[in-house]
Amino acid sequence: MLGGCAFADPSCAAGVRWEDEAPEGGICVPDHFGPFAYALANGGAAVDLAGITAAVELPAGRATIDTTTGAITREGATVRGPGQGVVDGVSFTIVASGVAALASPRFVVAAGADVRVIGDNALILIATDEVDVAGTIDLGATAPPFGGPGGGRGGVASQPATGCGPGSQPVGPGGGSGGANATWGGVGAVTVLPGDPTMCASPLAEPLVGGSGGGAGNNGLAAGGGGGGALQISAGRAIRIHGVIDVGGGGGAGTAMGGGGGAGGTILLQAPLVELAGARLAANGGGGGGGGASATAGADGPVGTATASGGRAGGGAGSSSGTNGGNATDATQLGGGGGGAGVIRIETLAGTPVGEPAFISPWRPLGAVDSPPTFGRILLR
Predict the structure, then answer these.
(1) pTM confidence score
(2) So where are the chain's domains?
């Protein structure tokens, strides 16, 4: 997670410290976000910002960001080549195990742009100026057992699910339990422990991790859904989201004994100004797979406020409300449990974003402390 905040103008806000190397007068810049380096507050490699010269602008069409190599492509053309360091004016750094950062003066995802993030690592987008998202950024889980970047993998056969709070596979006949992130996964159609959210990221999104994978059904043929990925966006001036960010968990596969759903991932937005007019932010859990002859897979965590339905024949629903994933609904069908809810954290100078979002899901009443999203001021370190 990003460090803190400094102003070029010491009169901007009481208690916000002066930093001589602030790159632009009159704007807030996060700690260690001067012209030379950016560093994670909780450790990790610094990101060199000295050589970044190229804005990343992705117009309408399909684009891909690879968090393993740093490559950015659009419609088959290279926007940034692979490799760590500054390539094509954009910096890429593996900042910690499982976390990668891309740094540019500005990131723009235009209306009609569909950006799929792939790779092994959670993603931090660092902009010294602004990030503007009018299209879609997708870090959701794909087909079971595969999670989004930074998310856990669903369980398969003899391989258990992974992540901070993975769902488990029953010892005897039964469906797998759902993975966890901010909340518990649901229980499969036998007594089996679901994923544990106390092992996952805090509501502050520290460390930056995605959702956990769901457990496999006992016969191993029904894979658990993967966990949603993790995305942090940190900007020196503003973040403006008018489009979609999706880190939904994957639905568990459905067979004779259903797989558990993957948990929703993590979204962290941090800038002096965060504008969310019309934004759709989704970190919902996937549904558990059904069990039995008529079983179907659970639905992936949706881009909306509805829950992901469990698969036909007893699958539990995924969480989209800050509650736990749903338990399997029919003990005789051996369905999997639904995935837990993800984490959404937004930090600004004022403590809250501006603009009316289309939805933020999962949601929780202001004042609640046990489920996303949470709001806060940029932390001073």
Answers:
(1) 0.87
(2) 1-35, 139-381
Alpha-carbon gap, residue 270 to 239, rounded angstroms: 8
Q: Which of 89, 95, 127 is nearest to 109 (CA)?
A: 127
User: Which residue, among 134, 161, 296, has the nearest Cα to 215 in the 3D structure?
Assistant: 161
CA distances to 139, 164, 306 from 228, in Å: 6, 12, 17
d(CA 53, CA 342) in angstroms, rounded, equals 34
Residue 39's CB is within 10 A of a number of other CB atoms, namely: 17
Measured distance CA(262)–CA(94) in Å, rounded = 25
Q: How many CB atoms lie within 10 A of CB 190?
A: 18
Confidence of residue 135 (pLDDT cuts 50, 70, 90): very high
Residues in CB range of 76: below 8 A, 6 or more apart: none
Place of tokens 């658990």: 224
CA distance 71 to 365: 39
Residue 20 C-alpha from the chain's centroid:
34
Task: Dig out the tokens for 307 from the structure.
Answer: 């829950």
pLDDT of 44 higher than 70: no
Return the minimum-mean-pLDDT range out of 99-103, 113-117, 235-239: 235-239
CA distances from 231 to 16, 113, 125, 209, 283 (A): 26, 17, 8, 9, 11
Closest CA to 129 of 1, 246, 238: 238
